[in-house]
Structure formats: structure tokens, C-alpha cells
Design a protein that fits this description.
- With about 110 residues, the chain is an alpha+beta fold.
- The longest helix is centred in the C-terminal third of the chain and has 14 residues.
- The chain starts with 6 loop residues before the first strand and ends with a helix.
Length: about 110
């Protein structure tokens, strides 16, 4: 079973709600989920730059999961909840080039749950 989110955000259709989400976690590597409350489907992802990734998912709709975009078009942003599962902290001795692999491994653990 997926562990409970440390933070979650609703009412993404309200003015500035997505901007608040984007800048709350600016430049923090994250594992996140976006759930459509009407279908129960959950998209799980990871990012080094939440401000850009959430913009692409929730505002621009480009380079984003097609199923997520279908739910946004059909049900609107008000049907979504963004879950922040983990702010990823890297092992101190992990070289920069290996951080992406570490982030993806961490994401996969959440997908597997």
C-alpha cells in the first residue's frame, strides 16, 4: 500500500493554487502523485524542478502523461489532488551524475507500492 503523503494540495482550479504549489517546493527533488478523485487513478512521478514539472502537468499540458491530461480535460483541475510523498535527500557521497538514477529508483519504489 502506498504510504500517506507528507503534503497534499486540492482546489487546483482556484487562482494561484498551482503557482503556490509550484513555488512551495521550488528546486527540491520530489516524489509526487497526482490523483483524480473521480476516477481514482494516480499518476506517480519524480522531478528535480517541481516548479517546471507542475507547470507542464497542470497548466501547459505538454510533455505530460496523456491519461492525466485526459482527466484534466474531462473533469477539470478541481478533480485532482497533488500528493507530495517525499522530498528526496541524496546520500552525501552520491556524485551529481548519479542523482537522477537515485531519484528514479526512489520513484519506482512508490510505483511498486
Amino acid at each position: 500500500m502506498l504510504q500517506a503523503a507528507k503534503y497534499y494540495f486540492i482546489n487546483l482550479n482556484l487562482p494561484r493554487a498551482v503557482d503556490n504549489l509550484r513555488y512551495r517546493f521550488r528546486a527540491q527533488p520530489l516524489i509526487y502523485g497526482i490523483r483524480c478523485r473521480l476516477t481514482g487513478k494516480m499518476y506517480i512521478g519524480s522531478t528535480f524542478s517541481p516548479e517546471n514539472r507542475f507547470y507542464k502537468h497542470l497548466i501547459a499540458g505538454d510533455r505530460s502523461c496523456p491519461e492525466l491530461q485526459d482527466d484534466i480535460l474531462k473533469y477539470g483541475l478541481e478533480s485532482l489532488t497533488v500528493h507530495i510523498f517525499e522530498i528526496v535527500e541524496f546520500p552525501i557521497d552520491l556524485p551529481f551524475k548519479q542523482r537522477k538514477g537515485y531519484l528514479l529508483e526512489t520513484e519506482q519504489r512508490y510505483i511498486d507500492k
